[in-house]
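2 proteins. here.
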Amino acid sequence: MRGAGRGVVAVVLAAVAVTGCKAELDAGGDGTESGKPGAGAQGKAGSALAAVDELTVKGRAPKTGYSRERFGTAWADTDSNKCDTRDDILKRDLKDVRFSDGTCRVAGGTLSPDPYGGKDITFTRGASKVDIDHLVALSDAWQKGAFQWDPSKRIALANDPLNLLAVDASPNRSKGDGDTATWLPPNKGYRCSYVAGQVAVKKKYGLWVTGAERDAMKKVLTGCPDQKLPSGGNPTEAPARFHAR
């Protein structure tokens, strides 16, 4: 009997061990179970997680009619500081910045670190490995509401510092016009900030999200429920002197 008892105990312990391993395997790196985006999770007031629930959920509209020109001339000086938007973001995001023209035209510097890949990237004008990324890609914005806007609002989105980030060109070009459901930065430590930035831009401009996108946002942000919703940037209308198709 004692031998049989030991056998029963061994079987029970083995079952517990297997169950425990399975639970660990099912747990996602963001604290949710694998395949379950934490759709019911709610964040505190002012958090990016809470703001996800304020976004409108709709299907993606056709890409018909989209072109970059719909968002105006690239890097327009919409804040009227006499520097184009690209130089403004380089000045903000690079370290050890060098100028070729006063304090506006950026000639060099270091992206330390690149938020998408986590490595230091040297910026040299004319041979740059640094892109300025639209957190919410313009094509994605077009398909989720921007096709309905006045040109001044599209120009504002394209040049709003809230929607812009200096990044390594290589991972950025793999993003294309992906949203949170289809692309996240390889650097896992930056994903909460990245998704919070997308939520902030979509909330500010009234862009909608797809159901899959909303679930992906909540899956990431459930792992960092206190992540603040970014704010600031430029007005949502560009000055009247700027035009787009």
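next one coming up
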Amino acid sequence: MSESTGLRARKKERTRDAIGDAAVTLFLERGFDHVSVNDVAAAAEVSKPTLFRYFPTKEDLVLHRFADHQGEAARVVRDRESGIEPVTALHQHFRAGLDRYDPVTGLSDHPEVVAFHRMVFATPSLAARLTRYQIEDEEALAEALGAGIRARLLAAQVLAVQRVLARTNWQKIADGRTAREVHPEAVSDAGEAFDRLR
């Protein structure tokens, strides 16, 4: 029984990945506004109702890559080692992402990643949907930090700092620099930003 459940879960994950990959490929080739949901369903070889079971909106077809990081800051705070302050744990996590050239830090010069970020930042409906994800992340982080206005303010500040750092890194790369060239500045900027949060 559990093996059957595991197979179903893996099949669902493969279907979700296939739909998401087909969508991003089409959107990058033709532009977000020039691709319909029907186009994506056809490319992924699924029906439109199946597509909407996995992705409730057209914007979610793009932003699922951000959604995969949903709640990450809250998890970092909850799972930190004893004696480590929340902001220190979040800084260490962001720094590790920079060292891995994780696209979520903006420090990736892979052409598809640069084009993906350009599409998200230049498409109003995508930027608006991304804001919704960020608000949900902020609420989860505030809950992990504790109760009250102080936790809510710190959560908002941390996520704003991460967003600004990532966007700054991406812009430098979009302007023609390599991720390796930007890395030392990105590390320094993150250090200064998280020091100010402390």
